[in-house]
Amino acid sequence: MTRGAPLADGAVRDRMVREHGRSLACEAGAGTGKTTLLVERILRGLAEGAFRAPELVAITFTRKAARELRERVRSRIAREARESAGGPVAERLRRARRELPLARICTIHAFCRRVLSQYAFEAGLDPGFQVVEEGLDRMYARELWQEWLAARLAEPDGLPALTELVGRGIALADLWEVARFALENPDLRPAGEPAGSGDEDALWTWLAERVRGFRGQVESALQEGAQDRLAGALRALDTEIERLGRLPARARSRWLLDRLDGGTVKLPFVTGNIGSGSNYRDRGVPARIRADWRRFREEAAERLLEVNAPLVLRAASEIDAFRRWARERRRDRGLLSQVDLLYETRKLLRNDAGVRRRLRREIRALMVDEHQDTDPLQVDIVESLAEGEGGPVLFVVGDPKQSIYRFRRADVGCYQRQIARFESRGDLGRIGTNFRSRPELLEAINRVGREIFDPGRWPRGQADWQDLEPCPPDARPGGLAGPALALLPIDETGSADARAEAEARAVASVLLAAREHEKVPWREMAVLFRTASRARLLEDILDEAGVPYRQERSQHFYRRLEIAELVQVLESVADPWDATRAVAAMRSRLLAVTDEALFRHVRAGGSLAPAERRDAGDPDVKRALERLAAWARRAREMSPPRLVEEILRESGYLLLLETLRDGRRAAGNLAKLLDIARVHWREKGLDLPGLVREFRSRLGEEQAREPEAPEAEDEDRVTLLTIHGAKGLEWDLVALYDVAAGSSRRTPAACAGVPAEGSPPETFEVRLQKGFASPGFAEADERNRELDRAERARLVYVALTRARCRVAIPCYPGTEKLDAESVLGILRLSPSFRRWEEAAGAGEQPPEPWLAFGSPPAAPPGPARRLDLGDPAEGRSRRAAWERARRELLERADRRVLCIPSDLHAGSGEDSGKAAAGPRDSAQGRRIGRAVHEALRWLVTGLLDDPREAVRRAAAREGLD
Ligand SMILES: Nc1ncnc2c1ncn2[C@@H]1O[C@H](COP(=O)(O)OP(=O)(O)OP(=O)(O)O)[C@@H](O)[C@H]1O
Ligand SMILES: [Mg+2]
């Protein structure tokens, strides 16, 4: 803490640190020292005996943040203990050092896990329960879903219920997406009550009557003998509807559904401005009819949705039943997901007063950092522990402008309501002095932030702006002087990748210049981006430029999990006598054998080599070994690429990947691997062992490029990180990258419902496909969209406030068309920023002393190192070729087609040498989608059990060869 001039908000800070008898909250902007206050409060509390280390629970957002907080508390106590001479304070600090490992400084999930293990019996859980890691969560959920589908189909009413849904064209994949949402949001129940079947006949009668009515109106107003196109169109439509009227109701509503487009139904024949006034006795008739016609089409869309709603609600209640079943199943098996940890803890605290009392006695101090990103369940847990007399004293800090984790259920509304309660009791402190950034940078941030956060812009869900105040000179960060904000004009107008590449080059030269001319250590620089999708490109350019970097969780191709797992399986197939390889293969997600099963198998005396006889052992393991052995047999009869395809198909691996967050990319990677195998086969005739050796040696090369051991955090490297990951951290220089990357938000199959004013959502809404949505879906989706957009602005605030001295931002002067929700799109909400961007493009002088255009400093002092970033043109063409190949692969691995490996194969002709298939037209795409769906349905319902046969038949039915 500073000891210089008193701060304007010094009294508030003092209270936050020293008042231990009362629950307090502190709300403040970025870099104002919230986390520092929390550490100081812990220190003072321990030193003054307000609580002891084992009585402390301090919750942070990520594991990395928890590690850091633990370290900060440890070193702070150590320093204070050294400085205090003796007496009771010194004694307490010594004890705190000893007891510190018992303090619970961790994430909320880790805290809940401990509570549940401690009180497993009371919570009705298996005391040895396991927690499924985040990525595996979905995979496991998917397994449960499939298990449930099978079980549900065996029930007397299960088959009709599910076939009704599927028969109406609802894809199992959509149902699964809703199911996943339901599992991930255990506190939301489906909105609305399932009602009886919607009346399709009534809808049709209404439609036919209205069309006839329009026709009558037009005909009676027509001039004698006139030939009018509007009248002709209505006649044709009327006839068509009469013809359709003889079809079954299902077929008619399908006809309507196919014409549903947004909020309207596009009926045939009657289009545009047809109908001429001169054909009518009253010239105004056609215009009036057309206006009525528009309203009629909208009403038709509304009615269609209404008719389908009961089916959607029934689907939602099926899914709710699945969720109950899955919860039971997980409890039986002793497996909890991350969100289950919160859900079960809250339930335990609500239902078991004894446990609650014990915990409230045990914990004296409960603190939460980054509370703005709180999950509604977390708020409940914290409040039920701390509310009323006799429980722990609560201390929460947060900044609503930094709430950026909606996708992980963060709900800034919950936080704001809790803070309002603190405020009403007079227990909220607000501070404004920022210790992180130079005053010049703060001026830039305040200017832009104020304009972006302008309340008029945000109808819903935005935090209030508050200027960040510069701190007194003696507490300012050292490091870089010079421009605080550098705009880097980019004149690349090509593809998104080409632009990103240009940005990466601009960023690389900023980093190099800061290092060369201003002696900034690499570790004091970071490059931040919204999504890591173009991080590879950045890495390539930084490699070329000789900038050392560290990317959290960077992975090269052969080291990606999906590739590594497939290679493991291939290794085992290539050598079926090797037990070790077989074990690795079985533990991969392709075969998904649990360690427990392996253990049982070995204990029962089973052998582990696929080529050996299998009599004893665990049935799961035996099945997996049988598969490996069968693949090994087949390896002798077919080419390696064909075998890889078979393995992918039979293991259902692609289907499974599809359910994971970046499953599409993973599938794309597998398609790429398959293509590599084809090339090796064609060009060199590599057999399976040869291919496996080749893959292994590639992996070796990658490992040589990047050391296996985790790099020490203090190594001198630039940090590459997502903005989300950068929360709470700081560097001297921060550059933003891929700033024009847009969002690809598609309409989700499920979303949180609209809550009652002043409370969190309690329901979820469902949209299974076009024309099938729960009644509240449209409104809820709109609301979620707005909230997401407001969050984008906060993400930009987080990015800008990570820097102590300088922020560098690529920009595109003169380019108007940009995704409004990209980082740059948000920055452009600020008129000041727009002006600067234009000035940068026009080559003007920067209007502010702390602003620079291009990489600062402009004139390098002393001998400058030549920045050899390679020939951009050559780089671009290489990149473009690669990008084309990638897109082709992705196209072939199209979501709905993902599960047919034969489609991955189609067109790339291992032996036929056919040219790659061109882009599918959408009708073809739909046919493929339907075929896949149909094949899946046959498989799930057990009508067929050979996937290949199912796909073949379904394809034939859809007229696909
Ligand atoms: N009282 C203080 N005197 C001097 N420096 C301080 C003080 N408080 C915090 N700092 C420094 O200011 C920087 C920001 O502090 P800290 O990370 O605690 O802020 P924060 O409010 O938690 O930021 P964020 O909103 O990003 O989480 C750190 O470098 C910290 O060392
Ligand atoms: Mg902080």
CATH class of the domain at 10-127 and 339-435: Alpha Beta
CATH homologous superfamily classification of the domain at 10-127 and 339-435: P-loop containing nucleotide triphosphate hydrolases
Please report the number of helical segments.
35
CATH topology (level 3) name of the domain at 10-127 and 339-435: Rossmann fold
- Could you tell me the strand content as a percent range? 5-15%
Measured as a percent range, the helix fraction is: 40-55%
- Overall residue-averaged pLDDT value: 83
The residue ranges in which pLDDT falls below 50 over 5 or more consecutive positions are 704-712, 858-872, 885-921
Strand order of the largest sheet: 16-17-15-18-22-14-23
CATH architecture of the domain at 10-127 and 339-435: 3-Layer(aba) Sandwich
- Overall strand count: 23
Molecules bound to protein: adenosine-5'-triphosphate, magnesium ion
Largest sheet: 7 strands, parallel
Q: Using the CA coordinates, give the radius of gyration.
A: 32 Å
Principal-axis shape equals: globular
Ends distance: 73 Å
Please identify the structural class as seen in this structure.
alpha/beta
